């Protein structure tokens, strides 16, 4: 499941975006000022950030400078609607610029377009001999269908989308189960074990000591 960070200090607008993107299948996190957003960006990776410019504490321009090295796509959503404002936002590195008030349909279309540009809305993911169809949630290995539970599928997506990256247990758990991690690892560990067995990936899904797990592309 792709995660969008919504950085917007107007709660009504933030909630409107949250509800509609959630209906489109995104996991959404909200921040209501720049300082809170900076803390969230530091603690978790996001697939897309929707960023207001006029924010309390730290403004959107300053936040964008912090986000750029991470390679996370950003769409500015702001009331600053002059041509000069748009040029400034895009020159600073925003991927798109949407002026308030906006139609929610235009927002979702722009979100999907930016995701496609970054390869984050792929209908199909392939890793070694395993193919994952994200729309139908069907997984095949060498043309043989692999039956996975909902959480096993979501866990597989996270591993494949972040291959060769060590993923912390707490972040992996919170992303897949959408619940607070309280230190109990058996649920996550048992799902990892089942994935390894079902996919024959005993040598691909590595345990990273004191951190979590990594899907290793170079494993044989």
Characterization of this structure:
Helix 2 packs parallel to helix 3, helix 6 packs across helix 7 and helix 6 (150-161) crosses helix 8 (186-199). The protein has 8 helices and 12 strands. The model has no long low-confidence stretch (mean pLDDT 89). The protein is α/β, with parallel strands linked by helices. It starts with a strand and ends in a 5-residue tail after the last strand. The protein folds into 2 domains: 3-117, Response regulator (Rossmann fold); 124-215, Orthogonal Bundle (Arc Repressor Mutant, subunit A). The protein is elongated, with a radius of gyration of 19 Å. The chain has helices spanning 11-23, 34-43, 60-67, 83-92, 104-117, 150-161, 169-177, 186-199, and strands at residues 3-7, 27-31, 48-51, 74-78, 96-99, 124-127, 130-133, 138-141, 144-146, 167-168, 205-208, 212-215.
Descriptive keywords:
five-stranded parallel beta sheet; 12 strands; 41% helix; Rossmann fold; 220 residues; 8 helices; alpha/beta
Radius of gyration: 19 Å
Helix fraction bin: 40-55%
Q: Decide which structural class fits the backbone.
A: alpha/beta
Cα separation of the termini: 28 Å
Low-confidence stretches at least 5 residues in length (pLDDT < 50)? none
Identify the quaternary structure here. single chain
Instruction: Give a count of the beta strands, DSSP E runs of length 2 or more.
Output: 12
CATH architecture label name of the largest domain: 3-Layer(aba) Sandwich
Largest sheet: number of strands, sense, barrel closure: 5 strands, parallel
Number of domains: 2
Overall body shape: elongated
- The total of helices stands at 8
């Amino acid at each position: 499941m792709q995660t969008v960070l919504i950085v917007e200090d107007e709660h009504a607008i933030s909630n409107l975006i949250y509800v509609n993107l959630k209906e489109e299948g995104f996991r959404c996190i909200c921040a209501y000022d720049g300082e809170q957003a900076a803390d969230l960006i530091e603690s978790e990776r996001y697939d897309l950030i929707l960023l207001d410019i006029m924010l309390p504490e730290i403004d959107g321009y300053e936040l964008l400078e912090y986000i750029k090295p991470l390679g996370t796509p950003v769409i500015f959503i702001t009331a600053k609607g002059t041509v000069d404002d748009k040029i400034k936002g895009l020159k600073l590195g925003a991927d798109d610029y949407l002026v308030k008030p906006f139609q929610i349909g235009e927002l979702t279309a722009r979100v999907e377009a930016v995701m496609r540009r970054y390869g984050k809305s792929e209908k199909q993911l392939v890793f070694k001999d395993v193919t994952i169809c994200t729309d139908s949630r069907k997984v095949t290995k060498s043309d043989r269908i692999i039956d996975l539970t909902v959480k096993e599928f979501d866990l597989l997506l996270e591993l494949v989308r972040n291959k060769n990256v060590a993923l912390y247990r707490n972040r992996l758990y919170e992303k897949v189960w959408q619940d607070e991690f309280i230190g109990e690892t058996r649920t996550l560990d048992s799902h990892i074990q089942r994935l390894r067995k079902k996919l024959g990936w005993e040598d691909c899904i590595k345990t990273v000591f004191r951190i979590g797990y990594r899907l290793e592309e170079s494993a044989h």
